[in-house]
Amino acid sequence: MASGGCGDAPGSPPTGSWQQKKRLSSVCDACKAQMQLVADLLLLASEARPVLGGDGTALADTFEQCRDTVIARTKELSILTHDIQSQLNMGRFGEVGGRLQEMADLVVSLTELSAHAAYLAAVETPGSQPCQPGLVDRYKVTRCRHEVEQSCGLLRATPLPDLTPPLLLELSQNISSSLRNLTDISSLASERSRDRFAREQFKLGVRSMSASGTALLACVREVKSQPSELTRGRCVLFGAALVQAVGALVGFATEPQFLGRAASVSAEGKGVQTAVMGGAMSVVSACVLLTQGLRDVAQHPEGSARMADYRERLRSSACAVSDGCTLLTQALRERSSPRTLPPVNSHSVN
């Protein structure tokens, strides 16, 4: 029977455990959105493009580098999923949330590397031509926009008593990091653009975003020092303005003329790309199901009539993660769809 989370003193009131379960539910929502966004942007994209790291260079130079790193990280993912289940069985909901965030970050990294491996394998096939980079990487700026939208959404939806100093600090850091990244990308695009209007518009977009960001972060500091519905309401108002400013800048930055040209991929290359990305999608889908299962457990009391069913779904999802890692590994090793593998357990993804 699950009891209070790690760090609770013996005999602590059950409200501690309930607060941890509420926090876990929120972490589940954030992690699910994070994994789905990256999968949508990289695995369901119709274009073939490399995936760039934070410094603007490709994640790896060769397919073999990507393949070996992805295979190593599938093993890390298996360990994490087992640890999540163990912590949950001990009622350590705080640790579950921490491990879940680690899992989501690992899935994002694995997805990025898989997408880059799929690109490299595809452009190596005869008749394919590599991507011509543009001024802006659509994946990077879209992820920044999502981080801002998610953080502002949490400020809007979280009740005042739950806006704790650690949460407010985390949200402020997430927003600041995303704004810095967008500023750097836009400033570089402005410098490199040959179009006078584009050069100025990137600068103006950054100024608008920066002003809105400064106003919002001031409101966050105020609600932290003087918590009230009034100060929280200001965060909602200025958060909406920031979301609009970021949306406008990213919308402008992702116009076709700034994105370069996607790779031209042969039929053989598309087959390889589909096989690798399909394997990665099977991992992401299973991890999303696992996250949803954790959310179901977190939102219901241990004595709920459906708890046994929720826990069984969770176990099945963990099995599906393992199956997905096997599919991805074989797709990377063979550069083809692993049709000879036994099918993923039918109960794993229901």
Structure description:
The structure is a single chain. 71% of the residues lie in helices and 0% in strands. It has nine helices and no strands. α8 (267-298) packs antiparallel against α9. The two termini are 26 Å apart.
Number of helices: 9
Number of beta strands: 0
- Any idea what the radius of gyration is? 22 Å
Average pLDDT taken over every residue: 88
Binned, the helix content reads over 70%
- Main pleated-sheet profile: none
Q: Which percent band covers the strand fraction?
A: under 5%
Uncertain segments are: 1-15, 339-350
Q: Give the ordered list of helices and strands.
A: HHHHHHHHH
Which structural class do you get from the secondary structure elements? Answer: mainly alpha
What is the secondary structure topology, with strand pairs?
Layout: H1 14-42, H2 63-89, H3 93-123, H4 138-157, H5 165-192, H6 196-225, H7 229-253, H8 267-298, H9 307-334
Helix pairs in contact: 1-3, 1-4, 1-8, 2-3, 2-9, 3-8, 4-5, 4-7, 5-6, 6-7, 8-9
